[in-house]
Structure formats: structure tokens, C-alpha cells
Amino acid sequence: xxxxxxxxxxxxxxxxxxxxxxxxxxxxxxxxxxxxxxxxxxxxxxxxxxxxxxxxxxxxxxxxxxxxxxxxxxxxxxxxxxxxxxxxxxxxxxxxxxxxxxxxxxxxxxxxxxxxxxxxxxxxxxxxxxxxxxxxxxxxxxxxxxxxxxxxxxxxxxxxxxxxxxxxxxxxxxxxxxxxxxxxxxxxxxxxxxxxxxxxxxxxxxxxxxxxxxxxxxxxxxxxxxxxx
Length: 229
Prior knowledge:
Layout: E1 4-9, H1 14-23, E2 34-39, H2 50-55, H3 57-69, E3 76-79, H4 87-93, E4 98-100, H5 101-110, E5 116-120, H6 123-136, E6 142-147, H7 158-174, E7 180-183, H8 192-199, E8 203-204, H9 206-219
Parallel strand pairs: 1-2, 1-3, 3-4, 5-6, 5-7, 7-8
């Protein structure tokens, strides 16, 4: 049976899932794991509040359990939301590696620069991001976290979104001292290359970062340290 990585978009937007799937192109290769991107139909249109984050944990873990036990099976999972909803619960659900895109995006940023900046979607998300970074003990590596003021469902308005992301990226670099940027939403995937060309610093799509780590985990035979309760 061929290796399979399951990427789960915990919101119900099939457009976001399609964007994530398209961003996987550089990570798909002839003898590599299959990368399948799924949408959590029970999720909200966008995960933009702590209540949204908490509300998808149960359905997300149920989907992981189904995919883990399906005929196709799964060798690793990726939770494709920058709030990493249910990450630790998911790791108790399966013995397979589970990557959260925020955790993976941040750890990748640490290898590419001294201080990272986050381009967030809405102001409310900044507090969640900073809380998570404090929990990781990485406050000293965070240059700044600034929102573009557009929610998940508005990320398809390319000219406006790209303009705002560019402006926020410039602020993070010039005012906050960031030398690497992380896009703070899986729905921003389409903008990575253009932003990197314009801003001149590494720009991380956290979904790509998480899948890259999942590929390494699958190829090296890693399992997570699931605690059976």
C-alpha cells in the first residue's frame, strides 16, 4: 500500500481546501507519499474565534479516526488551520504523526531567520497566536503579528488581499524587525510566491511547512508517542 498523508482543512470552505491542495504541488513527487486534502464539512466557513477553534475539535478527531481506520489508511495527518485546533487531542486519537500548521510554520521560520513576523487575518487572531507562541516559549523570536483585516471568506479577492498582505509584511520587516514571515492562515496559500518576490525575505506557507515535515516523518518511519488512556 502506498504512503498517504491526509491534510484536513477544519473549516467548511472547499475553496480554501482547493487552495491548500494546489499549494501541495511542489511536495508531490513520483515515489513520494500521496497527499490528500479533505474538508471538514462540520466546520464553520472560517475559523476566526476561540469558539470556532474549540468547536471543531470533536469532529476533527472523528475524521482522523475514520481516515486512520479506513481501507486507504493514513501514514500522517496535517491539521490545516493556523490555530492548530485539536492538535493534542488529535495526537491522542492516532499513533500516526499529526502536524499542526502553526507549530510547523513557526519551527520552520526558526531555521530561516532570527525573528519571525506573522501576517494574520483578523485582529482577534493575534491574541490567539501570541498565546500559542508564549506556550511554545518563543516570545523572544517573535518580531510582530499584524492583521490584514480580512476574514477567511474574503481571501479570494486577490488584488485587495495581496495589497494588504504586502503592506503588513513591509510593516513587520521595517518597523518590527522581522527577517522571515509566516502567513497566518491556510487560505493565504496562493500569495506566498508573490509576497516573497515583492518583500525580499523568506515567506512561509505553514501548510507547506507542515506537509514537508509530515513527508519526512513518514519516510523516516516516525510515530507519535500516543498515550493510551
